[in-house]
Amino acid sequence: MTQTVAAPHAAVPTRAWVVLALGLLAQAAGTLLVSAPVYLIPLLHLQLGVPLAAVGALTAAPTLGMVLTLVLWGAAADRFGERWVIAGGLALTTAAAIAAAVTAAATDALVPLGIALFFGGAASASTNAASGRVVVGWFPRHRRGLAMGVRQMSQPLGVAAAAVTVPPIASAAQTSGVFVAISALLVVLTAACAIGIRNPPRPQIAPASAAGSAPAGSSVSAAGSAPARPAPPPNPYRTSAFLARIHAVSVLLVVPQFALATFGMVWLIAGLGWTPAAAGLLMGVSQFVGALGRIVIGALSDRVGDRVRVLRRVAVAGVIVMALLALVALAHGAIPAGFAVGGIVLVLATVVSVADNGLAYTSVAEAAGSAWAGRALGVQNTGQFIAASAVGPGIGAAIALLGYPLVFGLIALAPLIAIPLIPREDRHG
């Protein structure tokens, strides 16, 4: 008898790449809204004199909103599918962006704007939770590292877009103009995702074995009862500590990422004397290069076949570049062309700081399995954004008290602590 064997590396359907592209753009647009307050810091702090800790609290408002809804959005994606979770979440994000524009035009107070941004972050979390699940559903394992690397470009691309566009728009049209522009973009992407995204095929779950077996060809058990219900997949958090360890590692590695994204531009301006336009452009370049780096790292993990080993090397690199940045911040005045050297090292540190996300997300999704991926990615995002929401006010206050060099050095401890927590081998659900 001839048996047909499936090709080990089946082709990825075109639909998968279309859905991936839309998910990337959706999350990038949400990140643009969440990151906009960061690039309002030069206007609010350096020109209007708002304390750095207060501005840091404003930047934390959208990430705090994300923290409270990520798991809920992930559970919704597991139950209802990715299409309407992403499209519906973007519609709510659009409403929050419009509210932010109206609020910013009506008053200079930061609290009402922070409330609007809080709800914007809560809504935009839908794209974080659901777009990662799309990768697991549409792509085979041998392409998931690359696909998740592409998907994970969304965060640095959104930050890059904010870095390049927010300062000039704020200069020309104030804070309200920034959120008007973001609202227009979100309207377009909401419609595109509602039309173009399709839920991936869901794998069939094997039925639980029954006591005794029915005769061949019978549709009922020997006792005449209906077929047994499919056995639900086990809770991956109860079968292994792998997911918990990856979550903890990701929380630690997100500290330098958000610290540099939030205060890197301010350091360039206040510490090295860069102009706001030049600093914004450099931050945009660093985030764009970081986005490309995520693709390279994801493809490398596919080639190596060991995601946690690559993740460990990224963490080691994170310690090195943050320590180097601390030294440059301390001694840039004594370094020839310290103005330029500081910018180069900041770009290098930023690229390394964003490289781990795709690896960790892919590891979480694969270990959780398709039935738990949405919830597990929601937990993954929640932990990261809890840390991120503390970075704004916490690091801002620390910089005001201790200065940039010492704070950069302290941030290097986060990836150092993460290294021994990284599991020794991958796990697949």
TrEMBL record:
In terms of superkingdom, the source organism counts as Bacteria
Q: Which SUPFAM superfamilies match?
A: MFS general substrate transporter
PROSITE patterns associated with the record: MFS (PS50850)
List GO terms (cellular component aspect): plasma membrane
UniProt subcellular location: Cell membrane
In terms of one coarse class, where is the protein primarily found?
membrane
Residue ranges occupied by any Major facilitator superfamily (MFS) profile domain in the UniProt entry = 16-427
Q: What membrane topology does the annotation report for this chain?
A: Multi-pass membrane protein
The UniProt keywords, alphabetically, are: Membrane, Transmembrane, Transmembrane helix
Q: Transmembrane segments in this chain: where?
A: 16-40, 52-73, 85-107, 113-136, 157-173, 179-197, 248-270, 276-298, 310-331, 337-355, 401-422
Q: Which Pfam family is an annotated match for this chain, by its short name?
A: MFS_1
Q: Name one GO molecular function term.
A: transmembrane transporter activity
Which protein, by its recorded name, is this?
A: MFS transporter
What is the source species?
Leucobacter chromiiresistens
Taxonomy, top ranks, is: Bacteria, Bacillati, Actinomycetota, Actinomycetes, Micrococcales
